[in-house]
Input
Amino acid sequence: MQTVLDFLMNKIKVIILILFAMGLSTCSSYNRQDYDSHIKPNIIFILADDFGRELLWSYGGTSYETPALDKMATNGLVFTDTYSTPMCAPSRMMFLTGRYNFRNYDNWDEMDFNIKTIADYMQEEGYVTGMTGKWHRGGWSLVPRGPRMAGFQMYSSFDYQEYHQNPFWGIDVWQNEEMITLGDKESSSEYFNRFAIDFIKQNKDRPFFFYYSMNLVHRPFLPTPIHKNIDDPNIQEKLSLNRGELEYFSENVTYADILVKRIIDTLIDEELLDHTFIFFTSDNGTDNVSEARELFSEFQDHFSKSSVKQKVQGGKYFPTELGVNVPLLIYAPGYINSAEVINSPVDFTDMMPTFIELAGGSVEGVETDGLSFAPLLKGNEFAGREWIYSYGNFENNSSKYKDPIGNSDGFYHVISDGEWKFYSDGRLFNISKDRLEQNEIPIGYSTESDHVRMRLDNQLKQLRNTKPKIW
Output
């Protein structure tokens, strides 16, 4: 039964939520601390797995408790439009290389290690680099192994091909070129979080770049270490059977939030928070198959002009807004000391040049499709992008993403300016009013929409015709 205190706390949270959505609407006025270009900030990039925007109250979701991420939002930056891809592996490739997938992504679980990565560039800027969690870019038969080949000096991860069905309990972990076997009752999520904390403590006296690639909240939805009866034989049996159940999804969301809080608490304890940028985002939208087939979340998009509260299904696999437009929170109390909503659209290719410039480097000569938004974070003038790009299909599986060259004709390519979204098959949506893409804008609807259609169509065609291009 709900207590009076619970009722009041929920009412207060709703009021804060409304004020947050209504009052923070531009990208020009939030207060920034002076950015000292001679002090290299630490950068932590947290990539959650299958964590759609509808899961966070800062975007309009009300079904889950995420106090740490809420704090990041109410004290940092919330980006309204951030494009990844609809699937895990290609999104990671886009982030790591700063390039669109049609230039360098042709394999689900392997990458060309001759391609320079963000970790390589950060090392050049004097950073120690590390990663933990879901790697999903292969190279486990190589020496050194994949993460180190890609520029991460310290890492702790697992072979995705061996554990893609359940990387959560009792797995073999590759850590700094050595294999460590976790016990049957040992959580990999806990282990990877401890590795991240240890990395921060060990490198607190030099600038670091850390890629925290969570395996939460991916299927299967299993009990987590915070489950009150985790040692109960019945719960342990569920873990051994590896059958996910929808009832544990909310717990997985809460647990992911707790792991984020531990990172923030460690930075506070080590007196590093004021010198660190924390990015939180996701590889794609929330899942919608298997035990997630019946997963619906309460959502009233704060950033849609005609938002309606409703239960929505996750958009993983699809190039819809709930599939590719993922949350992006940036928390950096030492540099950003008040909340703001950023309307300037960004995509995953922008992370590499942004991190390089935050580190004091130059992006001149860097092969990237991205545009650095570091000026925005430093308090300088920032014109922003004209558009952001992604792609995908409308099938509830990953088969075509595993062989993009062989299925290149099966993808829709999408381009958005944050207000309008255009598909390569000619469909147009006003996503500022219609985030769920329920009302296609026909040709001839208005002079404005016809001009937008022509502009976005031309921009998409120009992008797709640029070289290099492998599919």
